[in-house]
Amino acid sequence: MAAPTSADRLGRLLNLVPYLLARPGIRLADAAADLGITERQLREDLELLWMCGLPGYGPGDLIDMAFDGDRVTITYDAGIDRPLRLTPDEALALVVALRMLAETPGMGQRDAIERALTKIESTAGELADAPVAVRSPGNDDRLATIRGAVQRRRALRITYYTATRDVLTERVVDPMRVVVASGRAYLEAWCRRAEGVRLFRVDRIDQLIELDSPAAPPPQAQPGQLSDGVFNPTPELPLITLRVSRGGRWITEYYPCEEIIAESAEHWLVSLRAADLDWARRLVLGLGPEVSVVAPAGLADAVRDQARSALAAYGADLG
Predict the structure, then answer these.
(1) What is the pTM of this model?
(2) Looking at the Swiss-Prot or TrEMBL record, what is one Pfam family this protein matches (predicted)?
(3) What's the whole-number average pLDDT of the chain?
(4) What residues does each domain of the chain span?
(5) Domain 140-214 -> CATH class
């Protein structure tokens, strides 16, 4: 992770005063958590703010605050009472993201999205008219068919690409709803083949046919809880341990990890659950020299065997 810059701190300081003004008496620990910094960093920022204010730096011009135990209240803001405005790039990024959500079929709380988009566009000025078209390539017709099947309560026959096993499978499903999680559209349905509720990524449905038979999910088919994401690791899934160098540490932010141990300044030991070992093998191979397998031994052997086969195709030797 890159060291914070002076610009990072300046932006935080400029936002800190209006943040605290809106929350008089907030606990330092709660404020630090909201701002994504440590309590020590927050205290250092507050000490610096005490020296900030209008030109002249007289006692009546500087920012002032009162402490009550572990709580802080701004008593004088020196005119710094509004948060920073969005930069053009930030405003455009928000406009694009909100337009993407608004164009996603099956998205809930569409009214809230439209209201937020209207507010951002009204402050973005001419950027709101930027020629940016947001669409889900290749998914529109598929999503429309899926949404129709959900509304008509019809079963679907789908051909689905399962990324964890790198295979195409054909199955009949009973649609329950269309959901959006982590920026992707999913069909949640009872899978007759697996005899369970499954999430099918819409962009991985290769073919689908709406059947004449009605969708009939059994009583035990209940929608899943997706507030923590699509993948919910459970104890029965294989646990893998990897030694990760700096270039591969991003996986600790992208995947839920059970344990992270800093072995040294260069290497971390990372333990996480995998959907299966085929998925883990592809993850490790994709990270290349940034990672090595500590456990299980079967995963290390599978990675080594595939690496040898790949090198053999180029006349090289793994050693």
Answers:
(1) 0.40
(2) WYL
(3) 78
(4) 6-76, 88-129, 140-214, 239-313
(5) mainly beta
256-302 tens-digit pLDDT: 788 999 999 889 999 998 877 887 888 888 888 889 999 999 999 99
DSSP states of the chain: -PPPPHHHHHHHHHHHHHHHHTSTTEEHHHHHHHHTS-HHHHHHHHHHHTT-BSTT--TTTB-EEEEETTEEEEEE-TT--SPPPPPHHHHHHHHHHHHHHHTSTT-S-HHHHHHHHHHHHHHHGGGGG-------TTTHHHHHHHHHHHHHTEEEEEEEEETTTTEEEEEEEEEEEEEEETTEEEEEEEETTTTEEEEEEGGGEEEEEEEEEEP---TT------TT-S----TTSPEEEEEE-GGGTTHHHHS-EEEEEE-SSS-EEEEEE-S-HHHHHHHHHHHGGGEEEEE-HHHHHHHHHHHHHHHHHTT----
| Fold classification of 6-76 (topology level) | Arc Repressor Mutant, subunit A (1.10.10)
